[in-house]
Q: What sequence folds into this?
């Protein structure tokens, strides 16, 4: 019960508290302490120091504790920088948003934790929808036209998507007709245990609907647009939160149904669908990297790419699945780094257009170098984790029964890398005649420190590759019935 | 003692620790200059210790050497013959560049430019490069490889505000990422076959022989991109010129050799290699060599010219490797030894003279502020010793006796002759064609290096030089390298011995034939010495004759043509014009002659320009074609949300259809 | 009884596809709310249970009173022109709707042979889902989009009753609450869009693209 | 035994000594063929002596390259000469692979020659240097297609061994050798700047290659250059003559006779060729050289596939 309190109720209470107490500093300190508590508990659950016993529709297995830790970690860093982020001068309209910021953030934490920990499809659905609702107003933080449009699109597209996911859940019920599950609750484990008895047609339908519906939230192409709009227009910490954890929350729904479908005859079908989805996402990222002129959108497409890669890895299975799980952690941290540094750039240049952002390395050397390192990291350069997870995915793909996909994937990744590099290097080095580039009078602020800490964290966990993470991922693969 | 390092691991480890420590002053000291000098000094000590440790290994002593005693640190590090040899090359070239840094980076400090990041990346580059050749674990190898590539990339950014630096470094960046993808597949396949990540475990069994061609192609393309073989070279002439000189020297001298290392390392577990692999390498290499040097001839940018020469020399090394492969395929250790021996020695030689030339050109660049050789001239009157050092490097790189370039080319030639002799039939014909190709390359190299030497150093100054300063560090670093050129040229025996030992440790299975050692090195030494001796004697004789019959200087006669001006000298463009016109379609060589034939002529001008074929006809058009195709894909970039909602429905229908097909 | 109500539901769908007034949508939403409440309340009338009445009552409250009123308020506040502007002719739209419904009913019938399921509510619900999407796809007004979304939600609800899913009360209420909040947020957004972007059409939303 | 050791040094002295005579001989024959009396046969010696005694003048713009280049040229040419056989006399330098050393030492000479020409900073010398670099490049393959192809066929890599491996027992091999010797003749013409590639008689034409490179040399420097060019001419003559050593049937004496007779016949041939042909256009020279290379390739092809 204690963990239920910490994970779900406490953030809810804090959320209420934030609606009452209007002092931003107090809100910040309370939220930060909640996030620390959350992180500590998530970590101890993950490490097995704390044995959980959650009530109602909640329980913990290897997958949920893994994703919960990712969420908790990302959330902690986002909250950590939030205050210094909020201190920055914004427009008068956006000033009003600050009051809601921590309220919604805490609500988000509660909803997302609930989604991660739920063991019931209905509960999962409600919580996942609640995360959308908590994030949507945050997208509108700046209260300008773009933000409004992005919020509308995100809200609308994701709501419809998630409604489709609900249809998928109903199909799942339908598939249980005539089995011993009929009339029972929609608990994950019940379904997993009795998956073989489910009606394959409805199961497939359920998978399709849940996957397509949640795709809007994960950002799987071609349902990615709402996500891209939202992440590119949200304030950077929120964008980081969305890329780092919200997408994974949605992915978890897909993973659950995938886990159910695994022992049945539809397994291969589900894998194919996941592979198609992943490849489509890579393709979309590949296409848009040629066109994109807005660096935050570029990062959003990078998220599409990486979630696509994770989906692809899951679809391939085996070693690629392990790689995908690693990718989930590394990508989440990397995205926080990227969005935070991009946010720094944005607050200096006041523009998201690449053409207006020039010679970043001269004008803000610290941010510039960190941004460069982050780019290297996200494109799979060691020692930043993505390298290690990518090679696992690649290896898995090479020795799956579809090695040709590897060539396609590498082709996409290479051109994504080239075009992303072009944009980022343009920003970093290009010298504009107009700017009187005063060299390096950027002082070291809190966000730099955070980013450096994150880079160190990422490098440490990717180089040392703690056995506990590996063991947990192995447990997940065992849950998914894969032998390595 | 089962360790290839005779003094044990401590010296070895401490060398690396000290090299790492060199980063510390950069992070804690505020003063740029102080931090840099201290750090560079520590780095130098670390490298010297490393070199001592390498030199005291069994490879460089009389101790016998078996491949069993090469694994260290739970098999993650392997110091076998090949690894130690490349380690030696790396450290040997790194030391002069680090010495050179003392004076070179001073210029940047004077310009108030921050060099801390550059020095940091340079240190990381040096360390990671050493790890590349020592790594015995595939992941460690890949990580060091990537760190090496990326630190080199980051180092290139020292003058990042320049357009050409942005472009060139980007080429490098993309190429190094591209090749890593190929290496991934390569190592995955090996891992899958042997179930091990250790390079030393990679022995293919009979069942997996069918994989050898695939593995070979992967390795050749992957490592070939790094090495800069001709169709894959497009990044090299873009990237090397724009890097800071020390870095270009190290890139051209050492980093591209890691590609060669990779190919040679790969060969160790790709046995039996099919013969066509050798032919493939030979053809690609001769192509690289000829066109590398031909492109070089058409360049006016000294560093780009040298970069193209790297392609040429990689081609020559590749020729050696190709012969070695053919020897291996035909089970003829004699040929194998000659081929690999030539390749390995040329790798060392090229590392030496290429860094010598790059560092020399860096000195000129620092003083004149330009890399365009058309604006130089008469520098011999300013810097005689620099001219001599540069000349030594030039003669060496052209493969002309009496310096080291000749020695390795000589081995490769002998390899050709030997192949023709051992494998009768049609081999003599084919081998002769390659020999002629190689001789042609030599001729082009002579044309090219006479061009640069004469345009840069000889004649009169085309552009006024205010002052020309060369520091003592420049002389030390260039001197070390030039001395090595001379030593290997005049007295190659010890180096031949080392190369032979490398080959017998891991290349040729049975007791290796001493084909390399049996060549007439003594005659070569004697002949070279007698040439030197003869020239010296004749020089003194000449002095005496001048004393007797007189000698004076006067304005050049030039058929009585008076009022010569520096601008009337032969230029680099005109020197090479005739040669470049011949393959102008491949060199994309175009001239712009603007001369008026009126009664009172206007000023006329002549320009020539060459651009890279692969880059301009394949890579860039390919990329823009892709971009064009992509821009046709409009349906994805709609602003209207209704389309995306329609996509949900469409995807559900498509997926349902797939599901329907599944039944 | 459920089947009759489902058919009435289908009729409301026909109405919604030919009406050209925004008000018509609100009316249809209210009717559908009532129908849905009736459908779920039937099993609890006899024997009567208070517990079973909670959900239908909430549903009635949310779908018949709160949401339609809220939408009406927006329509009045913003003075949205009463006429919807469709992108295709009403006639073709109706044809499309009919064709879709026929396909759905036929497919459901085929599917019902392998599984025991209640064809009429199932197909009606599914039709509502698809027609909701159609409404969004072929109409420009944002408020109509919201209405389309609500029709889709209603369809899901009906569909849920057809497959007899046993969701716990708490979760059912949660879903209702979620839907309500979504609509609430959408309303706010439409308000903002009409003031800041000067329009209540999708065409006003064209800034974000690549 | 003692004589064998002495063979090498003696051969070099013979080559160095006779070389100007050979050049004088050609000139004399040319003069006779064109109906002039011509300079005496020993004229090259007189020229050399005259130059030796003259004051040396260096251009102001020249550097140390101009000082050492003639020396290197001279020494290197002598070293190259030391690898050549005279009859059955073993040359001073003879080891496996000396054919490569031979080609590359001449390369060294050329390298410095070009540098020395460019050292003056005059456009005349520049032009000559550029042409020298270009044509030498195309001449290089010819060398390998003549001597080199024999080497590849025989599997030997020492010039002495290569020439003495030639056997006259196989008709296709004889044809092969004859064509090789024709190629070698073209090579000699090119490398020694004779007609139709270059005209050794004129100085002041823009059509010059070799002569224009040494325009600004005088005195002892010019002496060295001139002497090296005489030796070079003779070296290539020997390369050509040596194809006929097999007729000597391994007799020392007959070998020397062939050497002498061959020299005379070759000088006559050169004189005739120079009399009856005119210079090619500059831009046609690479084609001409490529033609010679093509002969070499074709020759080797035919030989390889008719065996």
A:
């Amino acid at each position: 019960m204690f963990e239920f309190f910490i994970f779900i109720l406490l953030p809810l209470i804090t959320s209420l508290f934030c609606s009452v107490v209007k002092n931003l500093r107090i809100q910040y300190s309370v939220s930060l302490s909640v996030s620390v508590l959350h992180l500590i508990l998530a970590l101890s659950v993950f490490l097995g120091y704390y044995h959980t016993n959650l009530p109602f529709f909640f329980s913990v297995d290897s997958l949920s504790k893994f994703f919960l830790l990712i969420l908790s970690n990302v959330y902690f860093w986002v909250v950590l920088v939030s205050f210094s982020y909020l201190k920055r001068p914004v427009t008068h309209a956006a000033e009003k948003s600050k009051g809601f910021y921590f309220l919604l953030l805490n609500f988000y934490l509660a909803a997302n934790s609930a989604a991660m920990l739920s063991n019931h499809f209905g509960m999962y659905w409600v919580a996942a929808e609640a995360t959308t609702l908590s994030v949507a107003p945050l997208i509108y933080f700046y209260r300008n036209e773009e933000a409004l449009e992005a919020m509308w699109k995100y809200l609308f597209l994701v709501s419809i998507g998630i409604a489709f996911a609900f249809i998928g859940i109903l199909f799942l019920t339908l598939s249980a007709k005539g089995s011993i599950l009929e009339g029972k609750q929609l608990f994950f484990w019940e379904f997993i245990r009795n998956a073989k008895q489910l009606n394959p047609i409805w199961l497939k339908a359920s998978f399709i609907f849940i996957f397509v519906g949640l795709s809007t939230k994960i950002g799987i192409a071609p349902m990615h647009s709402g996500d891209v709009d939202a992440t590119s227009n949200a304030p950077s910490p929120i964008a980081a939160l969305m890329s780092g954890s919200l997408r994974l929350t949605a992915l978890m729904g897909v993973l659950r149904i995938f886990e159910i479908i695994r022992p049945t005859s539809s397994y291969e079908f589900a894998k194919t669908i996941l592979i198609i989805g992943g490849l489509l996402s890579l393709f979309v990222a590949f296409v848009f990297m040629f066109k994109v002129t807005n660096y935050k959108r570029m990062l959003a497409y990078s998220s599409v790419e990486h979630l696509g890669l994770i989906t692809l890895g899951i679809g391939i299975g085996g070693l690629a699945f392990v790689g995908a799980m690693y990718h989930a952690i590394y990508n989440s941290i990397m995205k926080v780094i990227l969005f935070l540094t991009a946010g720094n750039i944005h607050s200096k240049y006041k523009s998201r257009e690449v053409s207006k952002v020039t010679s970043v390395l001269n004008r803000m050397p610290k941010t510039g170098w960190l941004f460069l390192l982050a780019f290297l990291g996200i494109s799979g350069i060691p020692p930043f984790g993505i390298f290690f997870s990518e090679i696992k995915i690649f290896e898995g793909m090479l020795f799956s029964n579809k090695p040709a996909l590897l060539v396609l994937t590498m082709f996409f990744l290479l051109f994504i890398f080239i075009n992303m590099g072009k944009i980022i290097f343009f920003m970093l080095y290009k010298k504009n005649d107009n700017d009187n580039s005063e060299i390096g009078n950027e002082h070291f602020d809190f966000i730099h420190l955070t980013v450096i800490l994150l880079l160190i964290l990422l490098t440490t966990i990717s180089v040392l590759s703690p056995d506990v993470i590996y063991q947990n991922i192995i447990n997940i693969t065992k849950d998914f019935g894969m032998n390595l | 003692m089962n360790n290839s390092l005779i003094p044990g691991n401590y010296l070895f480890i401490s060398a690396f620790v000290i090299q790492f420590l060199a980063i510390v002053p950069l992070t804690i000291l505020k003063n740029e200059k102080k931090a840099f000098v201290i750090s560079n000094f520590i780095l130098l000590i670390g490298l010297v210790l490393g070199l001592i440790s390498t030199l005291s290994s069994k490879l460089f002593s009389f101790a016998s050497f078996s491949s069993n005693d090469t694994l260290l640190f739970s098999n993650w590090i392997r110091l076998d013959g090949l690894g130690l040899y490349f380690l030696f090359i790396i450290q040997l070239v790194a030391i002069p560049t680090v010495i050179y840094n003392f004076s070179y980076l001073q210029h940047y400090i004077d310009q108030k430019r921050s060099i801390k990041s550059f020095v940091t990346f340079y240190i990381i580059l040096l360390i990671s490069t050493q790890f590349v050749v020592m790594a015995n674990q595939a992941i460690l190898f890949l990580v060091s490889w990537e760190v090496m590539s990326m630190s080199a990339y980051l180092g290139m950014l020292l003058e990042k505000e320049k357009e050409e630096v942005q472009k060139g470094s980007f080429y490098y960046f993309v190429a190094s990422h591209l090749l890593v993808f190929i290496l991934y597949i390569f190592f995955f396949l090996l891992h899958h076959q042997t179930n091990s990540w250790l390079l030393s475990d990679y022995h293919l069994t009979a069942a997996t022989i069918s994989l050898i061609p695939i593995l070979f192609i992967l390795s050749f393309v992957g490592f070939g991109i790094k090495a800069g073989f001709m169709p894959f070279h497009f990044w090299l002439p873009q990237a090397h010129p724009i890097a800071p000189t020390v870095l270009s020297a190290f890139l051209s001298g050492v980093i591209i050799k890691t590609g060669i290392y990779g190919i040679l390392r790969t060969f160790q577990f790709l046995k039996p290699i099919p013969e066509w692999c050798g032919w493939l390498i030979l053809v690609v290499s001769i192509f690289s060599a000829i066109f590398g040097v031909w492109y070089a001839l058409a360049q006016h940018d000294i560093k780009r010219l040298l970069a193209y020469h790297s392609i040429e020399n990689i081609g020559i090394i590749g020729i050696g490797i190709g012969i070695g492969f053919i020897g291996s395929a035909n089970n003829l250790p004699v040929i194998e030894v000659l081929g690999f021996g030539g390749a390995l020695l040329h790798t060392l030689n090229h590392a030496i003279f290429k860094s010598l030339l790059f560092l020399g050109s860096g000195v000129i660049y620092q003083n004149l502020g330009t890399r365009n050789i058309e604006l130089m001239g008469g520098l011999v009157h300013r810097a005689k010793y620099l001219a001599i050092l540069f000349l030594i490097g030039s003669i060496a790189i052209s493969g002309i006796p009496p310096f080291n370039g000749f020695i390795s080319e000589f081995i490769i030639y002998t390899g050709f002759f030997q192949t023709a002799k051992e494998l009768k039939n049609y081999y003599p014909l084919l081998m002769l064609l390659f020999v002629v190709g190689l001789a042609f390359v030599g001729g082009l190299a002579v044309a090219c290096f006479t061009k640069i030497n004469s345009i840069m150093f000889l004649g009169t100054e085309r552009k006024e030089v205010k002052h020309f300063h060369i520091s003592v560090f420049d002389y030390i670093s260039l001197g070390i390298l030039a001395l090595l050129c001379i030593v290997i040229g005049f007295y190659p025996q010890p180096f031949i011995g080392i190369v032979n030992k490398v080959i017998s440790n891991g290349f040729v299975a049975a007791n290796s034939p001493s084909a390399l050692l049996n060549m007439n090195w003594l005659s070569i030494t004697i002949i070279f010495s007698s040439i030197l001796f003869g020239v010296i004697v004749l020089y003194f004789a000449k002095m005496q004759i001048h004393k007797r019959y007189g000698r004076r200087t006067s304005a050049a006669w030039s058929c009585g043509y008076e009022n010569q001006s520096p601008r009337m000298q032969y230029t680099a463009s005109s020197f090479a014009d005739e040669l470049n016109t011949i393959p102008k379609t491949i060199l994309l060589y175009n001239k712009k002659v603007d001369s008026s034939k009126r009664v009172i002529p206007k000023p006329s001008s002549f320009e020539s320009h060459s651009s890279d074929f692969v880059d301009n006809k394949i890579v860039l058009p390919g990329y823009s074609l892709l971009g064009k195709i992509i821009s046709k894909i409009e349906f994805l970039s709609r602003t209207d949300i209704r389309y995306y909602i329609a996509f949900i429905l469409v995807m559900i229908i498509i997926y349902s259809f797939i599901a329907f097909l599944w039944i | 009884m459920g089947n009759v109500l489902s058919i009435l539901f289908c009729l409301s769908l026909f109405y919604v596809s030919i009406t050209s007034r925004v008000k018509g949508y609100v009316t249809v939403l209210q009717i559908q709310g009532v129908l849905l409440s009736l459908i779920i309340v039937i099993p609890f009338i006899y024997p009567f249970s208070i517990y079973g009445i909670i959900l239908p009552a909430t549903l009635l409250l949310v779908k018949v009173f709160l949401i339609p009123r809220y939408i009406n308020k927006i329509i009045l506040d913003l003075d949205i022109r009463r006429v919807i502007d469709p992108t295709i002719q009403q006639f073709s739209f109706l044809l499309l709707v009919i064709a879709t419904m026929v396909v759905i009913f036929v497919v459901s019938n085929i599917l019902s042979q392998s599984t025991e399921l209640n064809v009429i509510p199932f197909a009606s619900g599914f039709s509502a889902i698809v027609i909701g999407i159609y409404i969004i796809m072929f109409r420009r007004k944002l408020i109509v989009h919201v209405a389309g979304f609500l029709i889709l939600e209603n369809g899901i609800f009906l569909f849920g009753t057809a497959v007899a899913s046993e969701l716990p009360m708490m979760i059912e209420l949660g879903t209702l609450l979620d839907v309500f909040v979504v609509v609430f947020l959408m309303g706010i957004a439409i308000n903002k869009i009409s003031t800041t972007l000067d329009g209540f059409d999708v065409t006003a939303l064209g800034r974000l693209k690549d | 035994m003692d004589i064998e050791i002495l063979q090498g040094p003696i051969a070099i002295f013979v080559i160095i000594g006779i070389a100007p005579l050979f050049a004088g001989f050609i000139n004399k024959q040319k003069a006779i063929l064109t109906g002039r009396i011509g300079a005496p046969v020993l004229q090259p010696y007189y020229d050399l002596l005259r130059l030796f005694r003259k004051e040396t003048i260096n251009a102001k713009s020249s550097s140390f390259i101009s000082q050492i280049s003639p020396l290197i040229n001279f020494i290197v040419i002598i070293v190259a000469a030391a690898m050549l056989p005279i009859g059955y006399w073993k040359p001073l330098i003879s080891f496996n692979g000396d054919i490569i050393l031979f080609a590359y030492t001449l390369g060294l000479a050329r390298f410095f020659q070009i540098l020395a020409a460019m050292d003056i900073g005059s456009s005349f010398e520049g032009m000559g240097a550029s042409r020298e670099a270009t044509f030498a490049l195309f001449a290089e393959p010819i060398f390998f297609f003549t001597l080199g192809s024999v080497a590849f066929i025989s599997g030997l890599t020492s010039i002495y061994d290569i020439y003495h491996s030639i056997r006259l027992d196989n008709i296709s091999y004889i044809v092969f050798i004859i064509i090789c010797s024709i190629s070698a003749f073209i090579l000699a013409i090119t490398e020694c700047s004779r007609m139709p590639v270059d005209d050794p008689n004129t100085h002041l034409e823009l059509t010059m290659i070799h002569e224009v490179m040494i325009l600004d040399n005088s005195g002892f420097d010019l002496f060295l250059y001139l002497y090296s060019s005489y030796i070079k001419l003779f070296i290539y003559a020997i390369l050509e003559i040596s194809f006929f050593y097999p007729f000597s049937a391994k007799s020392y004496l007959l070998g020397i006779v062939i050497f002498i007779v061959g020299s005379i016949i070759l000088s006559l041939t050169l004189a005739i060729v120079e009399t009856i042909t005119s210079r090619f256009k500059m831009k046609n020279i690479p084609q001409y050289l490529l033609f010679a290379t093509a002969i070499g390739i074709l020759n080797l092809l035919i030989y390889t596939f008719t065996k």
